[in-house]
Amino acid sequence: MAKTKMDSFVAILEKHIAPIASQIEKQRHIASIKNGMISLLAVLMVGSISLIITGLGNFFPEGSLIRNFFDAHNHILNLPFMFTYGLLSIYCAISISYAHSRQLELQPLHSIIGGVLATLILNGKYTDGAFDFSFLDSRGLFISIFASLIAVEIMAFLIRKQVTIRIKGLPDMIGKTFEAIIPLLIIIILSVIVNQITLSLSGGKNLSEVFTVMFAPAVNSIDTPLAVFVVSLSEMIFWFLGLNGYAILVGFTLPFMTQYLAENAAAFSAGQVPTHIFTENWWGYFLACTGSGITGAIAILGLFSKSKELKAAGKAAIVPAIFNISEPVVYGFPVVYNPYLFIPFVFGTPILGLFSYYIFKLGIVRAPIASIGGMPTPVAQYLVTLDWKAIILSFIIVALGVLMYYPFFKMYEKSVLAQEKEENTVEQEILKELDLDF
Amino acid sequence: MNFDKLRILLVCNLGASTGVMVAKMREVAANSEKLKNIDIKIDARPAGDIKEYLPDYDVVLVGPQIKHRFAELKELCDKYNKPIDVIDTKDYGMVNGANILKTAIVLKVKSERK
């Protein structure tokens, strides 16, 4: 009885939620932001190498030979950081314009030039005729995203309306270059106009500064317990329906999370305490420690299960879980559409998320400062925070996950065992009848 | 099997979990006597830029975690005349490389009979 009720509940969820998921991912701008920001992770990872190396140098005692070497060459070790995080808006403009030009089926090269031009101009300030580059770090990130999307849209519009220079008989490559001249010029003129108006209306602040002041509450609103809970709950509902909730939501959250990480990294680099928690790697390695839904805990329970089927699923899932990949658990046990695991998976995960959020909020573990990829738990958790307590935290999260899933898992196991027993007898009878020779 | 080449593309969000599947499928393919004479190539890629590499493959398999994008991906694959299917969730969860490989081969054979 309870089962049929659950089934109809799941059917309702699927009917209403699945179309939302496909609508979100089909939306061109969100898709471009997502694809662009994900490509940007490569830049963050390269920049993080500086932080990690410097962090490792700090292991050695003050005055020791190795520490002295690190301190003396600090400015060189810092180069990867400066030229990545320090110019993040440029890389962001490149990757968003590229992603969006692919969406709109435009020539990537001129679209990138357009997006970068708009970003440079709108983040610009000119003192005595010299360009002030300082806003091209994470402070210019949001303007860089909007400027690139709009620039590429303008480009697409003008090319579609044929507001371009076309000279007959030119080779295609050169023709394309001429085609870009008028759109690029219009992008420059519009950007300069917007920039000048902003500077004069705000008393010398550029668009990024104005944006930061005006939208600071909105920008910081993602880094709150409520947002963590809502994002995590939505993610888990999508995952329960078998859809990658991270992929669906990350288009909205990545701009914020990237900004947070960049601010944390800059604070750490300057010897201050990083304050933001809800960064992309916090989501990946703490909120979703061993996989979205703390699925490593289910894999562990599977390994010790009496059921053959669940044990096999646990074996298949445990190594991916160490690498924070949840799919083998989600589809193998399965968690998808599984009424027994619905409550801990969908509601337990955000609660555990809040637990680890507060561990960071209270300053017990250092907030994430570096971006890395492809590292197993708990190496990943250590490297993103450079705090050994993060290793302990990751074990605690998994242990709490095991406790959380245990009663629900046992109920599920019981039903699987009952079914296995039934199937076994039928199978055994058939095998006996067949009397096979192998 | 009347083909000597089979290029299989697995797509998911970032190519991470399909990467796990690919490793397993390659292992199965390498150990199979029947597939010895077929040049099999299996790759995992993110769905985001499928357009770029779609022409290089014969069949496309979609990870179940992005099945909400199946309609959109199928439309594209139809344009390029590439057969596409969603991987069975149970096979995906159990990292059943053999079954996923079978799905790909069946997809290819079916598309050639058309």
In total, the number of strands of chain B is 4
Low-confidence stretches of chain A: none
Q: What's the structural domain tally of chain B?
A: 1
Q: What's the architecture of chain B, going by CATH?
A: 3-Layer(aba) Sandwich
**CATH fold description of chain B:** Rossmann fold
The portion of residues assigned to helices of chain B is 40-55%
Residue windows where pLDDT falls under 50 for at least 5 positions of chain B = none
Domains counted in the coordinates of chain A: how many? Answer: 2
Largest sheet properties of chain A = 2 strands, antiparallel
Strand content of chain A: under 5%
Q: Would you state the CATH class of chain B? A: Alpha Beta
Structural class by SSE content of chain A:
mainly alpha
List the total number of helices of chain A: 19
The succession of helices and strands of chain A, N to C, reads HHHHHHHEEHHHHHHHHHHHH
Helix content of chain A: over 70%
Shape designation of chain B: globular
GO biological process, one term (chain B): phosphoenolpyruvate-dependent sugar phosphotransferase system
Organism (chain B): Fonticella tunisiensis
Keywords (chain B): Kinase, Phosphoprotein, Phosphotransferase system, Sugar transport, Transferase, Transport
Protein name (chain B): PTS system cellobiose-specific IIB component
Q: How would you briefly describe this protein structure?
A:
Chain A: This is Permease IIC component. The complex is a heterodimer of chains A (438) and B (114). Helix content of chain A is 73%, strand content 1%.
